[in-house]
Amino acid sequence: MNVLVTGGAGYIGSHTAKALARSGYRPVVIDDLSTGHAHNVKWGPLIRARLSDTEAVRRVLQEYKIEAVIHFAGSALVGESATQPLAYFENNVGGTLSLLQAMLDTGVKPIVFSSTCATYGMPVQVPIPESHIQKPINPYGDSKLAVERVLEWMGAAGQIRWVALRYFNAAGADTEGELGEEHEHETHLIPLAIGAALKDREPLKIFGTDYPTPDGTAIRDYIHVTDLASAHLCSLQYLDRGGESVALNLGTGNGASVMEVVAMVQLVGGRAVPTIMAPRRAGDPPILVASPDRARRLLQWESTNSKLKTIVEAAWRWHNRGESQLDVHMSASKVSS
After folding, report:
1. Averaged over 148-154, what is the pLDDT?
2. Which residue of 6, 166, 171, 182 has the smallest Cβ count within 10 Å?
């Protein structure tokens, strides 16, 4: 099966392309490389184009005989979305509408959509089930919810078949060291903590130490990026088996606080993480933890790599790969001498 992977040069998209290729699919990546990296595309062709160019997308679907789509492409920074709401709706909603039109024109029906737990807003129930009220508190979450609504209506009209995957906190790196997080403007806790430990970044800012949690810092549900990639593959297979269109949480059902993550980075790396305490950020919930039972049941999927230590170890190896290579060369020199 030829699968179009939009945003396949990015963090989660590239891991998913690798998982697809390992399972016998052919990932065809379309990416404008505004935030992705061409060197992440190793398992199939790369077409550099914007999703807003409907004709270009239509041409790719036809020329590569695409049979299904996994849709990652979009803007994903919560804080940035608050200052650039129009750009977020234009990219996340407008780009998706263009993609869906091209799919409609070429008769491609299955689509797996990269959604987010940000569609829920401030949780009133934890762990958060898929039935939780969706009331986003930022343009990023609202733009993703708008796409989910379009998918629902198109699915009801028999035009597409879809799975929307609501991620919690993607983290970690490829276990074989081929891929990792390479964000120009990093906002994720684990790479920021590792960067602070390696002195590659400023001291880590901890936003809020007075939450109603055991150590006062916010709790999040971290899921390994390879487990996310596996869930996309399982979603394709679910649709191929005739599964009904559905929205699913992707998480572990367990949370870790900011301070627990910092402690794990220090344990794994053997280095202190310099920190600066800062006030809470507006709109940050105290706890975000998924109820992932529905995804496990319907997709026959498990998050097998998402223990916090496993995530941090993989991320540390990726971000510290230059020094690790030096250690390897030094060890080899000692053996040869």
Report:
1. 98
2. 182
